[in-house]
Specification:
Blueprint: E1 7-9, E2 21-31, E3 48-56, E4 62-64, E5 66-68, H1 70-74, H2 85-102, E6 109-113, H3 119-126, E7 130-134, H4 138-146, E8 151-152, H5 158-168, E9 171-177, H6 186-196, E10 197-208, H7 210-215, E11 228-229, H8 232-241, E12 244-252, E13 258-265, H9 274-286, H10 292-317, E14 322-325, H11 329-338, E15 345-349, E16 367-368, H12 370-376, E17 380-383, H13 389-395, H14 397-401, E18 405-408, E19 414-416, H15 419-429
Parallel strand pairs: 6-7, 6-9, 7-8, 9-10, 14-15, 14-17, 15-16, 17-18
Antiparallel strand pairs: 1-5, 2-3, 3-4, 4-11, 10-13, 12-13, 18-19
Helix pairs in contact: 2-3, 5-6, 13-15
The structure holds thymidine-5'-diphosphate and zinc ion (ZN).
Zinc ion (ZN) binds near residues 13, 16, 18 and 59.
Protein name: Class I SAM-dependent methyltransferase
GO molecular function, one term: methyltransferase activity
InterPro entries: Methyltransf_Zn-bd_dom_put (IPR013630), Methyltransf_Zn-bd_dom_put_sf (IPR038576), MeTrfase_14 (IPR013691), SAM-dependent_MTases_sf (IPR029063)
C-alpha cells in the first residue's frame, strides 16, 4: 500500500465501523479543488491525491478512500459563501424552518460550525438570538469578527464545544451547513454537540444529498473536501449510535440537491415527522441499500466524461471560444477528470475577488472577474456553477440574446439557451 504524504487511507467506516466496502468509482489523481494557484509562483509541487469513492455495505455511507489532512485543506480557505440570491433565500429559509419547527426564544444561543464569514448567523442574530461561529479558516474568521459575528477560529470538537459553553452557555441550536460532509471525526462532533446543547437542543446538519448526487450524475460533488456522501438512512445510524434521533428533514436544491437534517436527543420532547420516514422509504426504493445503483452511477459518470470533452472540443475545433462560468470547487473536478485544460477553456469567470487573478488547480485555467469576461466575449460558457443555473441564465440574458450558449455539464452534457431549458434539463433527472 502506498503511503501518500498529507493523506491517510480510510480503514473502517466513519459511521458504523464496518470494513466491507464496495468500490464505486475512481477518478484518478486529482489536485485539491480549492487550492487556486498564484500565477507568480511556481506550481511544480502542486499536490495530487487519489480521488476514489467507496460505499459501506453495512450502513451505505459513501466515502472517499483517502482523507487529506484538514490543516492542509482549511487553515487558509478560499471559499467564501457567494453573494447569490439563491443562497440568501436559502439561508432565510433555514432560519424560518428552525424557528417554526422548534420555536426558539430571543436570547437563545445558536452556534454554527463552518460559519464562514457569518452570513447565516447574521440572520439568526436578526431574530434576536445570540450567535457564535466556529470556523478553522483564520482568514474568514477575521472577516466574520469584523462583521460583528463572534467567531472561534478552530475546528469544531468536544474541546471547542466545551469552550463555547463555558463562555456563552448552552446552545439551543448547533448548525453545520455544508461542513459535516467535510469532517472525518464524526464521533467527536456528535460528542461536541452533546456537550454544547441544552437538553431539548437541536443539532442540524445540511449535506449534499446522496440521492440527488446519484440521480443527477453529479460526480463533481466529489472532491477531497467531501469525505462523506450521506443519506438520511446513514445519518440515522450515526444519530442512533450517539443516543440521538432524526426528528425532521427538509430537501432543497442548493448545491445541486441538499438535505437539512435535524437531530435531537433520544429523550427530548421532539418527535419525528412523517417526512423522515418518507425520505428513508424513497432511499430504499431508489436502491441505496444494494450494489447496483452505485455501479450504474459509475457508468453514468464515465458517459459524462466522454460526452463533455467531445462537445467542448467540438466547439473549439469549429473556431468557437469556451470559457468556464464560475470557478467552484466542483468545477475543478469536472475539468481535471475530463482533461479540459487551458487549450480548450480560455478562462473562468468568477465573482469571488479572492479567486480572480488566480489559476485553477491542475488545469491552470486563469480566473477573471465577470467584467473582464464580458470584455473577452466568449461564445460559449461551460456552466461549472450549474447549481445556480436559473439565477445565472436569467442574469446573462444579454449574452444569450447575442447568440451565446451555455453548456450544462450535469446531469448530462447539453447546450442550453434559456433559464427554463436549463431548469428542465436539471429537473428531468430528479424524478424523486
Ligand atoms: P459554489 O457552487 O457555491 O460552491 P463549491 O465551490 O462548493 O462547488 O460555488 C459557486 C462559484 O460560482 C463561486 O466561486 C461563485 C461563483 N459564481 C459566479 O461566478 N457567478 C454567479 O452568478 C454565482 C451565483 C456564482
Ligand atoms: Zn458504515
Amino acid at each position: 500500500m502506498d503511503v501518500i504524504p498529507g493523506a491517510r487511507e480510510v480503514a473502517g467506516c466513519r459511521v458504523c465501523g464496518a470494513t466491507d466496502w464496495q468500490e464505486v468509482l475512481s477518478l484518478g489523481l486529482v489536485p485539491l479543488a480549492n487550492r487556486f494557484l498564484d500565477p507568480a509562483s511556481s506550481h511544480g509541487d502542486e499536490p495530487y491525491f487519489p480521488l476514489r469513492v467507496l460505499s459501506c455495505r453495512a450502513c451505505r455511507l459513501m466515502s472517499l478512500d483517502h482523507v487529506v489532512d484538514p490543516e492542509i485543506l482549511y487553515r487558509d480557505y478560499l471559499y467564501i459563501t457567494p453573494e447569490s440570491e439563491t443562497i440568501r433565500r436559502h439561508m432565510r429559509n433555514v432560519v424560518d424552518l428552525f424557528c417554526e419547527r422548534f420555536g426558539p426564544e430571543a436570547g437563545d444561543l445558536v452556534v454554527e460550525m463552518g460559519s464562514n464569514i457569518g452570513g447565516q448567523l447574521r440572520l439568526f442574530a436578526g431574530k434576536g438570538m445570540r450567535v457564535v461561529g466556529v470556523d478553522p479558516a483564520r482568514n474568514l474568521a477575521d472577516v466574520a469578527e469584523a462583521n460583528g459575528i463572534p467567531t472561534v477560529p478552530e475546528f469544531f470538537s468536544v474541546d471547542t464545544a466545551a469552550a463555547v459553553r463555558d463562555s456563552h452557555g448552552a446552545a439551543k441550536l448547533l448548525l453545520g451547513r455544508h461542513v459535516f460532509a467535510h469532517i472525518d471525526d464524526l464521533a467527536g462532533v456528535l460528542d461536541g454537540a452533546e456537550r454544547l446543547l441544552v437538553p431539548d437542543g437541536v443539532f442540524a446538519v445540511e449535506v449534499p444529498y446522496v440521492l440527488d448526487m446519484l440521480a443527477t450524475t453529479a460526480f463533481d460533488t466529489i472532491y477531497h473536501e467531501h469525505l462523506s456522501y450521506f443519506s438520511v438512512g446513514t445519518l440515522s445510524v450515526l444519530a442512533e449510535r450517539h443516543r440521538m434521533r432524526i426528528v425532521d428533514v427538509a430537501r432543497s436544491s442548493v448545491h445541486g440537491g441538499s438535505v437539512l437534517v435535524f437531530m435531537a436527543r433520544r429523550g427530548s420532547k421532539w418527535r419525528s415527522t412523517a417526512a423522515v420516514e418518507r425520505l428513508r422509504g424513497l432511499e430504499h426504493d431508489f436502491g441505496l441499500y444494494g450494489d447496483r445503483v452505485y455501479r450504474r452511477f459509475a457508468e453514468d459518470v464515465m458517459r459524462v466524461c466522454e460526452e463533455l470533452p467531445r462537445i467542448v472540443r467540438g466547439i473549439a475545433t469549429e473556431g468557437g471560444t469556451v470559457a468556464g462560468y464560475g470557478a467552484p470547487a466542483k468545477g475543478n473536478t469536472i475539468l481535471n477528470v475530463c482533461g479540459l485544460g487551458r487549450d480548450v477553456v480560455a478562462f473562468c469567470s468568477d465573482t469571488t475577488p479572492l479567486k480572480q487573478g488566480k489559476l485553477l488547480p491542475g488545469t491552470h485555467v486563469p480566473v477573471c472577474s465577470p467584467q473582464e469576461a464580458r470584455l473577452r466575449g466568449p461564445d460559449h460558457y461551460l456552466l461549472l456553477a450549474w447549481n445556480y443555473a436559473e439565477e445565472i441564465l436569467r442574469k446573462e440574458s444579454g449574452f444569450l440574446a447575442g447568440g451565446g450558449r451555455f453548456i450544462l455539464p450535469i446531469p448530462r452534457p447539453v447546450l442550453v439557451d434559456s433559464a427554463e431549458e436549463a431548469v428542465e434539463a436539471l429537473q428531468s433527472a430528479v424524478q424523486l
